[in-house]
Amino acid sequence: LFIIMNLSFDEKATACEISTSKIFSSKIASGNDSVSSWDTNDVAKWLTEEGFANYVDLISKKHSIDGLALINLSEQDLRQPPLSLDVLGDIKRLSLAIAQLKEREENAYLRRSAKNFRVFHNIEELSAQLLIAEVESADTPNKSLLKTFLAGLYFIVVVLVTSFVMVIVHDRVPDCKTYPPLPDIFLDNVPLIPWAFDVCEVLAVMLCLIWIVVILLHRHRLVLMRRCFSLLGTVFMLRCVTMMITSLSVPGQHLECEARVTDWNMKISHAIKIWYGLGMSLLNVRTCGDYMFSGHTTVVTMLNHFITEYTPDSWRLLHTMSWVANLFAIFFILAAHEHYSLDVFVAFYISSRLFLYYHSLAYHASAISAADSRTRIWFPLFWFFESGGNVGRVPNEYEWPFPSAAVIRNFWNGSYFVQASKIELCKLRKIYAVHCTRAQQLLKRRKD
């Protein structure tokens, strides 16, 4: 409805300008489209063509009145010194001509401004610009919710792709009898601890539960979820690439890799099992070949950084526990001989650096020009999820996320919907009144 109304306003302004320009099209000799850009010679030509040649020397030459000064002349300026015109008929006619010229200039300005919204006429040409403007506009509750939903969808899709890649690399893993484990400083000097990997996953679940509680109680929970989903999705997408390009031999002889399957239905079924099992051995998910780099290290490192970042600095005990859990989880991964030391080191480095780089950009987003296309090209996810939102560091403020008993009671008996409908109706009335006023003004201007 708003697009149609805006289109009608644009058409009215265009029609008004055309009707006015017909009066002047045969009279204006200047090639300049805007009256405000006229010089004194253009003003002299206009005065001559309007029948005021006897005032050319006085107005354009003696007083150096250009186009901008001309459209700001009033009837009182013509009567009083230094112009002091003494013929009443000339004063009235010249005042009317200047008023028409001023109206023409205003209509021309409206038309030039309307060209920026040519999406209503040529959606293929400027639809991208409209999308960019919409993304960079201020966040509304619905827009913020939509961004969070898209971030979550992005993360879910990436995890599904990662699961499928893990099935593929499982079939490509070298035979451990032909290709023994690679030399590794840590694995060669630390004995195998069979239960260590289960402890690592227990620590990961503990960090995940803490992070879920932080999200639920945080006032800016949608921003936290958006950043968490986008960062985890990006890291796991990078992990898909590193797993595919090089297949390392298994890091330990104790790892029993299942036989390769050639049936695509079985591969898809195995990928879905990995997906909803989150790749955890506690949920009976066993894979081989997904070594460069460690997904478990990525998850615990990201959770640790999110917990320490989005809780108050005074919560030192929680931060210490989070870091201890992160480091011990990494140790237990290596103690279980599930990954090479290189896998764990690369995973920790990439996860921590990506977290810090992303948040450094987010904290200084106000210094990044929204019109700079390089941000949209090099950091598309950052641009999409951070534009229009909370710029800078998110304050660690907490609130009770669940509605009170009174709100639930109003929701149950229907009074909540009645009140919400009244508020929406008031908003629509205000919008309707504004558009009706604009329409009346344009119709009146066209009639005059």
Automatic annotation (TrEMBL):
Gene Ontology BP term (one): ceramide biosynthetic process
| Superkingdom of the organism of origin | Eukaryota
One short Pfam name that applies is SAM_1
| Key words, A-Z | Lipid metabolism, Membrane, Sphingolipid metabolism, Transferase, Transmembrane, Transmembrane helix
What positions does the domain SAM occupy?
A: 38-104
Q: Which residues span the membrane? A: 149-169, 192-217, 323-350
Major localization listed first in the record, in broad terms: membrane
PROSITE patterns xref list:
SAM_DOMAIN
Q: Where in the cell is it found?
A: Membrane
Question: Gene3D superfamilies of this UniProt entry?
Answer: Transcription Factor, Ets-1
**A single Gene Ontology CC term:** plasma membrane
The UniProt entry, under CDD domains, shows: SAM_SGMS1-like
Carries keyword Transferase? Answer: yes
Keyword Lipid metabolism carried by entry = yes
Q: Membrane topology per the record?
A: Multi-pass membrane protein
Q: Name one GO molecular function term.
A: sphingomyelin synthase activity
Cited InterPro entries:
SAM, SAM/pointed_sf, Sphingomyelin_synth-like, Sphingomyelin_synth-like_dom
Homology family: Belongs to the sphingomyelin synthase family.
Q: Which protein, by its recorded name, is this?
A: Sphingomyelin synthase-related protein 1
